[in-house]
Structures are given as C-alpha cells and as structure tokens.
Amino acid sequence: MRKFIFMAGTAVALALAGAAVAEPVDEKLVIDGEIEIVTKAKAPEGHPFDEVLSGWLFRTAETRALEADSFINPAMLTVEDGERVWNTVEGTEGKSCASCHGNAAESMKDIGAHYPKWDAATNRPVNIELQINKCREERMGAEAYAFDKGGQRPLTTYIKYQALGTPVSIDLSQGEMQKWWDTGKDLYYTRTGQLNLSCASCHEVNAGKYIRADHLSQGQVNGFPLYRLKNQGIVSLHNRFRGCIRDTRAEMPKAFSDELMALEVYVTWRGTGLSVETPAVRH
Fold this sequence. Notes:
Blueprint: H1 2-17, E1 29-31, E2 35-37, E3 40-42, E4 51-53, H2 61-68, H3 76-86, H4 97-101, H5 104-107, E5 117-119, E6 124-126, H6 128-140, H7 152-161, H8 177-189, H9 199-203, E7 210-211, E8 214-215, E9 226-228, E10 233-235, H10 237-247, H11 258-270, E11 281-282
Parallel strand pairs: 9-11
Antiparallel strand pairs: 1-2, 3-4, 5-6, 7-8, 9-10
Helix pairs in contact: 3-7, 8-11
C-alpha cells in the first residue's frame, strides 16, 4: 500500500511538472452582449499573483460561448428554479423570501459579491447558504436546508445571479474575519492526502498548465454556484472544495465546517476585483 501511495503521488507530481503550458485566452466576456464581465483584475496587496484571472479564460471556445449567452447557458434553468423558491411560502410564519425582501433584482443587487460576511451572533463568517438557513429558521419558521438539498442550490444561485457583473470584494475588517483569512491561507498551502497536494499545487504553482486534458486555472470562485459540464448540473462551492480534497485522497471536511468556511474566506479574497459570473460554466 505504501509503495502504491508513493507511486501515485510521484505520478501526479511528474504529470504536473511535465504538463504542457497554454496561455489563457485574450478575450472579453460580455453576457448577452450587454453585461461586461471583469475577467482580469489587479491582484490585491499580498496576493501571490500580480493579476487575478477568471476561470472562464482557461476554458474552451465552446464552453466560453455557453456562459456568454444566457439563452443557451444550461444553468439558467436553475436560476429560474431559484426564483420560484424565492417566492414560495414556507414555515410557520407563512412567509417567503419575497415577503421580506421583495423584488430580488433590487434587494439582492450586488449582495452576492460581498459574501462571506461576519456574523456576530454565531461568531464566525457566513456565506449565502448559511444566511439563507438563518433566515429560514429565524424569520420563516422553516427548517434549515441540508447541504445541497431542497432549494439550497437554486436559491443560492438565484441570489448570486443578482450580482452578475459586480466585482468581488469582502470586508476583512469585520469581526474576526482576518483571523479566518489567516486560517484559510494556511489551509490553502497545506499539503494533504495520499497524493500530498495542496490547493496551491494546482492553482498557483501549476496554473496555466494542462493536466488530464484540462487547463488548470487560478481556481477563482467568483462563478459559483456554477454549471459543471462533467456533472451536468449546478455545483456549489463547498461541493467543489470537498471534491478537490477527495481527489488528494484525504478525508473530506463537512460542508460549512470551520475549515471550509476559512478556506472560502481566503479563496474569495484571492479573486478580489473579478466580476461575479454566477452561473458560470466550467468543464
């Protein structure tokens, strides 16, 4: 078993080291010919890159075209489903999201570009999924969604979609967000699993290279939830985090655990200045 693990880890390392290099495309992303998306931005101070790049720039022409046209973007069906959930009355209080927030295009405009945020009540950061659950329990008298179940993915996608085109920025001065950022950074560079890989192994050290016929991006999260062609459906951010960790042959943390929330804070910061692309399309 030890020999197998060593050989597997060595094979991955050699594949990354010898991977072909390809530059991200030099194109502009304009959704429906109207909404111009920032796909290249100056990196925030302290970032390992000089420029942050959207994952859209690393995809094939066919995949890029799917995201640029809402009519053919398969994820727009999930956005429509999310609108239905937004207007559905649930819980003992007889309320829907719309009961408090009205028209999402107005009340949720730009909101998704600034999460995770600090939640003083729980003394930790919350993302949109956790904020939805908080509202369901405290305002609607409804049960919290289980991870990736019920209306969680469509509603999160719908809310993030209202910020389409808005540059990502999170406030690290809130509460103890900086401490969580520090923890997330440590996790990003920590090698784990039988393959001894970290997030940085693919998305920093080998960004721009090909591995297993896929073009490695910087691993930005400004497009989540997104439509992944491999899965033929919407994939949430914590689902992708857990999938990457699984692929290193490590034990997966629970969704919304302290580890993954810290990682979300840090990785979201890494994409500061890029537009929200939800729902993006990726391989």
